[in-house]
Amino acid sequence: MARGRVGKTVGSLGDYLREQRVQARLSLRQLAEQAGVSNPYLSQIERGLRKPSAEVLQQIAKALRISAEQLYIRAGIISPEEGVGGSVELAVLADPGLTERQKQSLLDVYASFLAQNAPGPGEAHPTGHDTEGADHG
Known about the structure:
Layout: H1 6-23, H2 28-35, H3 39-46, H4 54-64, H5 68-75, H6 87-94, H7 100-117
Helix pairs in contact: 2-3, 2-4
């Protein structure tokens, strides 16, 4: 059931948002106003031309009264396969003490660590580096 297509995620996000907006009986303009984004920007998101930040997705989710987590999954910010592991991303996204830029930076670093630690086909991890920072006392 896993779909690893990033390009398709943005398109399905737009389709999903449009569907939710129609079900909520909101015009594009009304949703844009409630979410605090411009009408053209929201239109571009729905058409799959723009990938919104986690902050914008949270505002849209609030305006639509739906789960922000669903939007994060559809936008490819978190993976549904991660299950409990997705809680790291959700915790970062939900932290009010971080700016949007800081949240995105943390998510990027976290994703790069996960990718770095994932064994590649036919690749071996360098020896000795996995024990850095071990408790010495």
